C-alpha cells in the first residue's frame, strides 16, 4: 500500500481581494502532490505565484477554491491549523525578519516555548538543531553580529528544533553572497538526504535546482513545467520563452550543440568539462 503524499493541492485557486473591490487571481487550478522525503525546487518569475503557493502550504493563506491537505489535514480546518504548522516550517528571504531572540539559543528556543516543550527536551532539541547546522559554538552569540549565511542557518535550526515534516525555503538564499548560498544549500541537501526531511526550495537560481528530485516551474499562476531536473532543463527554448534561465552548464552545452558539436545532455559543470575533454582527446 502506497503512503499518502505529505502535501496535496486539489484544484486550488487563490485570489486577493483589493481595496478597490477588484479580484486579483494569483493561482489557478493547481493540482500537485509532494511525496515524503522528496527535495523539490520551484522556479518562476516574481509574480508567478510561487510564494503564494508556499503560504498556502502552512495555512498562512487559505485557498479561494479547492483544498490543501497537509499530512491528512485540510488547512481550512481552523481547529487543526497549529497541527498543520507543526508539520510545515518556513524559512524566509530575510533572516532578520525571522530571528527574534537576543541570543542564538533564545532564538532557537522561541518556537519550542510556543509549543510547550518541557525544559529538558527543549535543551536537547536546541543542542541537536544547532549541531545539525554547524552553529553550536555560537550558542550565546548575538544574532545581529552573525553573517547572512550564519543567520539563515540559525533560522533553519529554529525550524529543525520543532521537528517539521517539511521545510519550505522561500527565496531563502536570495540575499546571501555565493558562499552563504553554498552553505545553506549544502545544509538543506544534507538534512534531506541524511535525516529524511522533505524540502521545498523556492528560488530564482537554477543552479540550486539541479540536485533536486523534482523541479516545478510556475508561470502566471499555473504549473508550467513539472519533472526531473534533466527533463525540465533539457527544454531550454521552452524555459527561455518563459523568460527563465537555465544552469550555466546547460546553457553552454546548448550553445555548443547549436553550433554543431555533438554532446549528451548535462546538468553540472563537471559533466560539461568531462565531455569537452573527451572530445579534445579524440581529435
Structure description:
Helix content is 38%, strand content 22%. With 283 residues, it is of the alpha/beta class. The chain is built from 10 helices and 10 strands. The strands form 2 sheets. The protein has a 6-stranded mixed sheet with strand order 6-7-8-3-9-10, sandwiched between helices. Strands 2-1-4-5 form a 4-stranded antiparallel sheet, covered by helices on one side. The chain has one domain (7-246): P-loop containing nucleotide triphosphate hydrolases (Rossmann fold), CATH 3.40.50.
How would you summarize the topology of this molecule?
Elements: E1 7-17, E2 23-34, E3 39-43, H1 50-57, E4 65-70, E5 73-74, H2 81-87, E6 88-91, H3 104-115, H4 119-132, H5 148-160, E7 166-170, H6 178-195, E8 198-202, E9 214-219, E10 222-227, H7 229-233, H8 236-241, H9 248-258, H10 269-282
Parallel strand pairs: 3-8, 3-9, 6-7, 7-8
Antiparallel strand pairs: 1-2, 1-4, 4-5, 9-10
What share of the residues lie within helices?
A: 25-40%
> Strand portion, in percent?
15-25%
Structural class from helices and strands? Answer: alpha/beta
Spatial gap, N to C terminus: 54 Å
